Amino acid sequence: METSLYPLKFEPILKDKIWGGTRLKTMLYKEISPANCCGESWEVSGLVGDESMITNGFLAENNLNELLEIYMTELVGEKNYEKYGLGFPLLIKFIDAQDNLSVQVHPDDELAQRKYGQSGKTEMWHVIASEPGSGLYVGFNKTVSKAQFEEAIANGTVEEVLQFYPVQPGDTFMIPAGTVHAIGKGVLLAEIQQPSDITFRVFDWNRLDDEGNSRELHVQEALEAIDFDHQTDNFKVEYQPQLNKTVRLVRSQYFNTSLLEFDQPLNKSFVEIDSFVIYMCLDGQILLAYGDERERLETGEVVLIPAEMEEVQLLPARKSKVLEVYC
After folding, report:
1. What is the average pLDDT value for the chain, to the nearest integer?
2. Is there a smaller number of Cβ atoms within 10 Å at the N or the C end of the chain?
3. Is the pLDDT confidence value at 74 over 90?
4. From 3.40.50.1980, 3.40.440.10, 2.30.30.140, 2.60.120.10, which CATH number describes the 245-326 domain?
5. What is the pLDDT of residue 207?
6. Is the pLDDT assigned to residue 161 strictly greater than 70?
7. What does DSSP assign to residue 75?
8. Every domain of the chain and the residues it spans
9. Residue 312: which residues within 8 A CB-CB, separation 6 or more?
10. Which pLDDT score is estimated for 195?
11. Closest CA to 254 of 139, 170, 174
């Protein structure tokens, strides 16, 4: 009977949103609902109630948390298990914004732990597709005090103080917890984040739901969570794409992400990182070779390489683009 771990694939957890669209279906090949307003595809999640279910191999129909209880360090690595225990340390998503997301902020670890018993939410975005004029709102375009921002919320002038970044495919942003932000309409992106779903909305573009109601705002919670000393930072990640190379995008205490664009086989060794590795296929068709086995990875698919696997080979059928993520 098979007992060793192998590259794991999961059933996407699809979430309809008031701002969602159809590109998770048309560009990433997800089976969205007939409502055609799918905003998020949770690809790898250990959050209670939203645990990712394995779809391949002898572990199919088990969820990620069940595997973590059984395999522990073999799945996530010794340092991650010591730090996070039986909590999976990341949440991996694709997001399609057909309309603007609410202007929001997430708490840092200290605030989230003190008030909610959870981790904070630092995240990063990598743009997959964008429409002309579309972009992301991250931080402020000038120094704004807590009192001034509270006044802007009350007056409905929040947009006037937000920093707007026009974007194109490949643009990458690091969003520390405590940063005011919103994904703008027309953007499809990959999101890597801490495993938290705590969101404080401060402005929702005066939008109403199907019953004519505004969505709930969390102004006082947001004002407590915002790091007003760093809202004018530059949140865009600068990098130079290189064909057939591993290009570093983000290194942080929470996750490390690189970009791989390649049309030749790549040999990947994980001996030194003591972590699982996640590959998000943004475009292409790849075979993951490990020993005598193969696992196919196509556009829109995500795979988790367990920590006990020390190496894989990535064999592209054509020019391919993936994000490589580990802790």
Report:
1. 96
2. N
3. yes
4. 2.60.120.10
5. 84
6. yes
7. H
8. 8-225, 245-326
9. 7, 268, 270, 288, 289, 290, 305
10. 97
11. 174
Sign of CA dihedral 44, 49, 55, 56: positive
- The answer to whether 259 and 190 have CB atoms below 8 angstroms apart is no
Q: Do domains 8-225 and 245-326 have the same CATH topology?
A: yes
In angstroms, rounded to a whole number, what is the distance separating the alpha carbons of residues 145 and 192? 29
- Report the pLDDT averaged over residues 85-93: 97
Q: Is 113 in a helix, a strand, or coil?
A: helix
**What's the helix, strand, coil split of the chain in %, to 5?**
15, 40, 45
Tokens of 312: 């894989």
Largest pairwise CA distance in the chain: 65
Confidence band of 173 (pLDDT split at 50, 70, 90): very high
**Averaged pLDDT, 162-181:** 98
Q: What distances in angstroms separate CA 182 from CA 100, 101, 132, 140, 240, one per listed residue?
A: 7, 6, 17, 12, 25
What integer pLDDT is reported at residue 114 of this predicted model? 95
CATH class of 8-225: mainly beta
> Residue 1: is its pLDDT beyond 70?
no
Tens of pLDDT, residues 222-244: 999 999 999 999 999 999 999 99
Give the residue ranges of DSSP H helices in 51-108: 64-71, 73-76, 78-84
Euclidean distance between CA atoms 159 and 144, whole angstroms: 13
Count CB atoms within 10 A of the CB of residue 10: 22
User: Quick one: which of 301, 302, 304, 299 has its CA closest to 284?
Assistant: 299
Answer yes or no: are the C-beta atoms of 49 and 29 closer than 8 Å: no
65 burial level (CB within 10 Å; 0-12, 13-18, 19+): middle
Dump pLDDT digits (tens) for 102-115: 999 999 999 999 99
Which residues fall within 8 angstroms of residue 126, CB to CB, at 6 or more apart? 170, 171, 172, 189, 190, 192, 249, 257, 259, 282, 323
Q: How far is residue 219's CA from residue 105's CA, in Å, rounded to a whole number?
A: 10
